[in-house]
Design brief:
The chain is of the alpha/beta class. Helices cover 47% and strands 13% of the residues. The chain contains seven helices and four strands; from the N terminus they run H-E-H-E-H-H-E-H-H-E-H. The protein has helices at residues 2-8, 32-57, 72-75, 81-101, 127-136, 145-156, 174-177; strands at residues 13-16, 63-70, 106-113, 167-170. It has a four-stranded parallel sheet with strand order 1-2-3-4, sandwiched between helices. Strand 1 (13-16), helix 2 and strand 2 form a beta-alpha-beta unit. The termini are far apart.
Length: 178
């Protein structure tokens, strides 16, 4: 944030997109250190970056913050309780931050991303898991990073200037199929 302010003298948009995938273990086997590390990266990081960005946006008259969430908390995927909890907390934090930052004309929204076999989950996407995830999506395909990027660009743009506190589900229909 400091480098952005030094270079551009303003901060208009923050996208909180850093995350780790969690412990990949059943609840009864998941270690405390793994749980805490997932919360530190996926939730504390969102809090700290949002706080710092908002402090920079307030003097400029507002801005937009977009948090990357997940459909995982709604789907309650097994063996990633730490990840599900962290992303569910990001969803709740998004709404609370929108309430608190709205008076400063800072919009806070999120994207609840569906299955995008890229980045942190690429190695875990076996052909069987890819087929299952594709079958669950009503649109018959998995997402690609550009699908999420377009939603983020919309929420960060003036086209969304009266939207705040929302989680835009971008999942090809997976959550309504169940």
């Amino acid at each position: 944030i400091r480098r952005t302010l030094d270079r551009f003298n303003r901060l208009d948009v923050l996208v909180n997109n850093a995350a780790i995938g969690g412990g990949h273990a059943p609840l009864l086997e998941l270690g405390t250190d793994t749980w805490l590390e997932t919360q530190r990266v996926n939730l504390l990081g969102v809090f700290l970056c949002t706080q710092r960005a908002a402090r920079a946006m307030i003097p400029r008259g507002g801005g937009a913050i977009v948090n990357i969430g997940s459909i995982a908390p709604v789907m309650a995927y097994p063996n990633i309780s730490d990840y599900n909890a962290s992303k569910g907390a990001v969803h709740a934090f998004t709404q609370t931050a929108a309430r608190e930052l709205g008076p400063f004309r800072i919009r806070v929204n999120g994207v609840a991303a569906g299955s995008v076999p890229d980045g942190m989950n690429r190695e875990r996407m076996t052909p069987e898991r890819l087929a299952q995830a594709t079958d669950r999506a009503l649109l018959g395909r998995l997402g690609v990073p550009a699908d999420i990027g377009k939603a983020v660009a919309f929420l960060a743009s003036d086209a969304a200037d009266w939207i705040t506190g929302q989680m835009l589900v971008v999942d090809g229909g997976t959550t309504i199929r169940g």
